[in-house]
Amino acid sequence: MEQESELVTGEAVVLDVRAAKLASRGLAMMLDVALQLIALIVAMLVLSQVAVFGDEALALTLFLVTLVLIMVGYPVICETLSRGRTLGKMALGLRVVRTDGGPVRFRHALVRGLAGFFIDFWALGMLGVVAVVTSLLSPNGRRVGDYLAGTLVIRERMPAARTPYVGMPPQLAYWASQLDLTRLPNDLALAVRQYLGRTSELRPEAAEALGYGLAQQVAAAIGAPVPPGVPSWAYLSAVLAERRQRDQAKLQPAVQYGPPAVQSYPQPTAPAPVAQPQPPTEPAPENPFAPPG
Asked: Is the pTM value of this prediction over 0.85?
């Protein structure tokens, strides 16, 4: 079960995210553990060949080192290189982030990996009991390693939020075309758009109160009070629709004006000379003195 949460960045920007809870995190953990167990089995088969030759102490030492590398190094390396994702988290669409919304670094991944091995899951975690209890008690599903590292696991694959279409009330079209909207702040316009998109999700009294407050802020910004008898939502819709129409008009390619192009006409050419008829030529008289044949 996931729920929406809010992260506040260092610049005081509020981010709406969906924190991953126990179900999705547990499935991702099972996939990671399966991969780790496969790696451990392969390592044991290789190290067993070392013990066959009689050096059991070396084989035990190598096994302990391999165990730590697989159980601690695997999540630390994966989360460091992929900015908060292991193979299991990739499959489930999860990512580890800082509580301010930023990407995790090596120190965060290392603290999470060590706490996961020694506290949450294996050494003292009684096979994950500590992690399960802590996650159930946390509003954002965080385990001990998340609290120590200052991290949070969120869902990346969320349905795309639909941008609500704000239409122009026909009765306010001419009135809105006369407004000066250059002083309307972008953050206030965004708040109005979000309000209009979630009006149906609010209780009527809450929607009316919130709409009235936003209408008063917009009226103070643009210097145009709400016309008498016009609801707050219609006033806000008219302002946003007119603002969108003007922004779209600015994006249209400008018409190029300039002197008309000079049209060239083909120059007249002299007529071809007419061939004069030649008088017919008569055959030359035969030479009577020419020798025969």
From this structure: no
